[in-house]
Structure formats: structure tokens, C-alpha cells
């Protein structure tokens, strides 16, 4: 299969290579003028595909002149694959950054926006800065939705600045930045606050990480805070007094903790209540569980870090801070309480999207990574993306040694340290990659004890990332890093290092999947460089404990106390070794199942969100006037269809609640028929709208008001709906049993809830249109919603 696809790509490569000499002879200005020429031809109807050979030849030549790098044939092949909407699997260090310039230039010619999406700020900013030069030289604009972390905090862009970024020919952004911007753009209540264009073309860098691993965590924008609770502090204090196996139990494999009967008895005594399971103590019960989880299942420096008096979650896949992400439903506050930092607002989510849905919005999607083949089926299923493997430019000469496995953590530390010391003695640079901040600190401590100077790169030190990476390939360098240095990081070898054997990569934990292993190994042996990689594992590695293979646990129990740091004994038993591998593949399949579940549950909210956002856009970009009376009438009809007014007071209540809270009363001779009720309601509405029109002077301002009021109705109801769906999902999952398809139940309920929301939107619209106050101050409309 791969060969067939490669053959197709090679045809284009041939055409591009045939133009090589001709383009090399062009003067700088003739080369730059090609952009205009291509754009003219596009305008006349020529297709991108037919421009491909010339455009690729042009940008390739420009890469050489501006960046000093002439894309190799294999990179051109990769570039063509990216244009054609494949995932180009190019081995680590083959130069994907440069490869992307080719299809980005070609697709940027359309002026519809060609995006390079990557996992983190450091990579996005680095690549945009380096590659930006060549696009500008060729007369294309580039927008950068990332910033230099060493120079300070994230800039807060105004909508007009975002519009410039997203309006550029080529855009470099992080996936998180893009997702949040999409959600914020869809919270705008007027044209001048919107900045996104329709999504056209994207190349997703580190495609497997972004599209699969990170895609497990949906993006959430938080909104109005819920009432603050003092139960966090009380619950936290209580939990710290509990004794393990008496008051609570903890299952390490599942990373689950629960309070025992004895624990609950203790709680009843402590809080002086009779029955904690009584409904009136629901909130306390919930907070106790949150506090228990905060203490027993969330670990500092593994799951989160504490920075600037804040809890920042860590991404399991790459050890980086998950910018802007919070644990939901009060869990975040419980962890804050545990760490004694100020409690943030416990907000409900206002808008949310998964990456699966976000990327489905691109007209054309492609991706690149060093590791995609093992997950090709999933890529096809979730994104319709096929993988094509691109050959390397030079053979990879890096040596990947088989894993060394030890029983205990101490033995693993001892063995790996001996190896590191030996390498360091001869001056070979070493990169030690750990699975958590905690372990990175242990290694740092051990190295200090040996008097070895080294750098530590983890979530606490990302501001120094570029500087640390620059040093990491020099003679004598020792770098301890979490997996955040495991992808994209380009470590260049210093003078004399190749002769010493290149970079040595020492991995010191069993990683969640093989792709992460390969990426870590791939920090060495780039561009045909020498280098090697070696993993040191132990039966106390997190993944082995979590994946619970009984034979391994038994082996561990029987052997753990016999070894120590100074006397590490490697496990040679092939059966035990194969079980360690199995723990990793178990984990891979459960990761995949979890992703499948995310996709399945996402279907409802995806459909609902699309309908709702389209409705919002229709209002924001409405060419014709919005007929407020028509919307009010529909709301009245809805109400009359579902509600039977029993007497005049009932009608009056409805008017006071929804139409006019100063309403004086119905006429004495009012006859209670639906027709009459509707008539009087329409009269009140029409009078109120006329009054507002008088205040707002002209029709244009009145239309602005109507639009904002209806958007407000949509948004408030949508916030409710997002919350309802989230809770519904939790409820359905916790009820899930065998032979019962929870997703079916979920989608059925979600549909009902959506229909209710549509009715409620109209109801709220009436309220916001009629019961709000408008004023006209200093040439601006001011609106107060009750
Ligand atoms: N055509 C070229 N000629 C010379 N050097 C090149 C060329 N292409 C790339 N390089 C160099 O190769 C190195 C690796 O490039 P890059 O970091 O883009 O690799 P990558 O494929 O993204 O790796 P990873 O998979 O680890 O992210 C860089 O130092 C880059 O300058």
C-alpha cells in the first residue's frame, strides 16, 4: 500500500526536480515575483494541484536562499503527502519543520489561511520564528499564535489583533490556542469581536500526540462561578486524619480511593450528624469524596505542579503544563485546598469542544509525525487520515538497545546511574528522560551527590527550554528532562561529540505507549548522526503497577527486598520481560478504548454545538432585520401549547415574570381564552419594544440591542445545556452495566434536553428583550439584563 502511494508522490517529485536548475538561476526578485504569478493563475481558475511542481520548486529554492537549507528529496515527498491530506510519517530528526514550508506556501497562496498546528508554545514559536523568514521573503503574511516564554507572560490579544493573526496567509498556532480561540470566537456578540475565518487547511505537527493523546482532554471555557463553599476546608481537614485500610482504602492499580464504613462512622462523629447518607448531607458527602481523591489519587509533581500560588495540571503525555485546563466539578478546588493555595472560582463550563470535532472542521487536514503507523487504523477511523511512510534521507545509525529491567526502583536508579557516570566520564552528552517531575528531581539529587553539573528541564523550567536544549548536545552535558523534551526537541551535536558516539538517551521509566518510547529514542541519531538509546525500567514503574499483571506483582513481592542501589540485578527472565511489554500494550489498548468512548459520547454535543453556533452566526451576520416580535410570538405559542392558564392570576404571574414586572393588572372584563392571552401579551411586548426604540433613537441601534438580547438567551441556555450534558454523561457512565449500551441512553436523553433548550431559548429571549433596561450614553448603547 505504502509503495503505491509513494510512487504517486514520486511522480510529482520528478516534476519538481526537473525545475531545480531553472529556479536556481532566477534572480531574487524573479523568484519572489513567482508568488504574484501563482496567485494570478489561481484567480484565473488554475488548481493548486497543477501549480504544485512550480510552487514547490520556488519555495524550495527560497528555503535555500533564506534559511540556508535546501529540502532533500524525501522532504519534498513529505511535503507533497501533506498537501494531499496524508499523515506523513517521517522519522524523528528528518526535518519536518522545513518540510512543512512547502505545502504551507502552496496552500497559503489561496489566502484562505494555511495553518501549522503544534503541541506546545515552545515549538510553535520556534518554528514560526525560523520559518517565518522565508514566507515573508516570498511575500506571504504569517500570523503567530504563540509567544516567547523566556520574555514574559502570554500576551492578551484584542480581537482585532487576533483577526490579523488568523487573517494571515500562513498561521502557526498551538492546538490549545486554536481550540480556545475557536470557542471564544463563538461567544462573541457582534461582528467586531469575531476574528476567525472558516477553517481551510491544517498540518498537524506531532499528529499522533495532538489528534489522539491530547484529544482525550476536551477544551473547556469556564463561565459564571458557582457559589463558593466552605466545605472544602472542613473536608480537607477531616481527610488528613483518616487512617489507610481502616477509614479508607486505596487501589493502586485503578488509582481509586474510597471511604470505608468505619470511615463514615468517624465522619458522622466528627461532623456531629446522625446519618451522612441522608439527602440533606449530599454536599458534605460530595466534598469529602473530592477531598479524599485530592489527597490520595492526585499527586503533586506527577499530576500537577504548584506555581505562583496556583495548581497547574500536567499533561500525562508530555509532562507539560496543560495551559488553561482545570479539573471539573469541584475537584480542582479540593486539590487547591490540599495544597493551601487560594481557591479559584468553581465555575461551570460555558463552551467545550474536543479536538476530534475541532479538526473535523478543516476542509483539508494533514499531519506529520515520527510515529503514526502503529495507530493508522485509528487515524483513518477518527479523521479519515491515511499514513504514508517517507524514507529517511540518510540511514539511521542510532543504536536502540533493548530495555534493562530491574525489580525495584532503587536498583533501577543504581544501574542507570552507573551507566550515566560511565558516559559522562568520557564526555559524551547524556539526556535522561523521566516520567514525572518527581523522578527528574530524584535524578538531579543523585547527580548532585556525585558532583555532576547538569540542567533540569521540567514543567518548572520551561522558560529556559531553548537555552537548555542548546546546551544538551555539547561535550560533557548532562540533561535531566521529563517527557516534555521527548518530542520536537532538536538537540544539535557539539564539536567532537560525534567522535564520542553522539548523544546518549537514557529513558528511565516505562512510558504509556510505544510511540512515546520511539520519540524519546529519536532525540538521538538525527539526520544520520551517531547516538544510542537505552531504557531502564523497574517493576515499580507507575505503568506496571497500574496495569496490574499479577505475575509481575508476585515476582516483585518475592524479589524486591533482595536488591539495593549499589547492587542492581537485572531481570533476565524472558517471560517476565515479555510481561513488562504486555503491560505497555494493555495500556495502549485501554488508551484507545478511552478515545473511542470520547468520540462516541461527543456525537451529541457536536451536533448541538454546530446547530447553535450556526444560529449565532446567522444573527451576528444577519443581512435582514431581525424580527423581534416574531420571536416573541413563537415563544408565546410554545408556552400556550404546553401550559394551561387556570385563572387571571396565573396569567398575571406569567406577565410579571417574563414580560413586564411593573404590569399593573389585567382589565376587569378579561376573558380567559388563549386568543385573548396571546393578544394581550403581544400588546405588552409591542409597547415595550416601541419604548426601547424611542430611547435608542435609530433602527440600527435597536437591531444591535435585539441581537445582543437573543444571543444572551442562546448563550445562557447553552451554558445550562453543556452542564446538563456533562452531568448526564457522568451519570450514564457510572450506571453503565454489561449488555446495556450507555451511549444510546445518553444520546436519547441529550436529544430531549436539546429540545427543551430550544424552547427555553425563546422563553429567555422574551425576558431579555422585554425586561432589560437600555440607555443611550455618550453615543453608546448600554444594556442591563435583569
Ligand atoms: N534539508 C536540510 N538540510 C540540512 N539540514 C536540515 C534539512 N532539513 C532539516 N535539517 C536539520 O535537521 C534538524 C532536525 O529538524 P527538525 O527538528 O525539523 O526534525 P523533526 O523531523 O521535526 O524531528 P522530530 O520528529 O524530533 O520533531 C534541524 O536541525 C534542521 O535544521
TrEMBL record:
Domain Helicase ATP-binding residues, every copy: 77-244
Gene coding for it: secA
Superkingdom of the organism of origin: Bacteria
Subunit structure, interactors included: Monomer and homodimer. Part of the essential Sec protein translocation apparatus which comprises SecA, SecYEG and auxiliary proteins SecDF. Other proteins may also be involved.
Protein name, as recorded: Protein translocase subunit SecA
GO cellular component: cell envelope Sec protein transport complex; cytosol; plasma membrane
NCBIfam families hit by this protein: PRK09200.1, secA2
Domain Helicase C-terminal: 415-569
Ranges where the SecA family profile domain occurs: 1-568
UniProt similarity note: Belongs to the SecA family.
Subcellular location: Cell membrane; Cytoplasm; Membrane
Alphabetized CDD domains for the sequence: DEXDc_SecA, SF2_C_secA
Membrane topology type: Peripheral membrane protein
EC annotation from Swiss-Prot or TrEMBL: 7.4.2.8
Main localization, broad class: membrane
BP-aspect Gene Ontology terms: intracellular protein transmembrane transport; protein import; protein targeting; protein transport by the Sec complex
Keywords: ATP-binding, Cell membrane, Cytoplasm, Helicase, Hydrolase, Membrane, Nucleotide-binding, Protein transport, Translocase, Translocation, Transport
Binding-site positions, ATP: 75, 93-97, 490
Gene Ontology molecular functions: ATP binding; helicase activity; protein-exporting ATPase activity
Role: Part of the Sec protein translocase complex. Interacts with the SecYEG preprotein conducting channel. Has a central role in coupling the hydrolysis of ATP to the transfer of proteins into and across the cell membrane, serving as an ATP-driven molecular motor driving the stepwise translocation of polypeptide chains across the membrane.
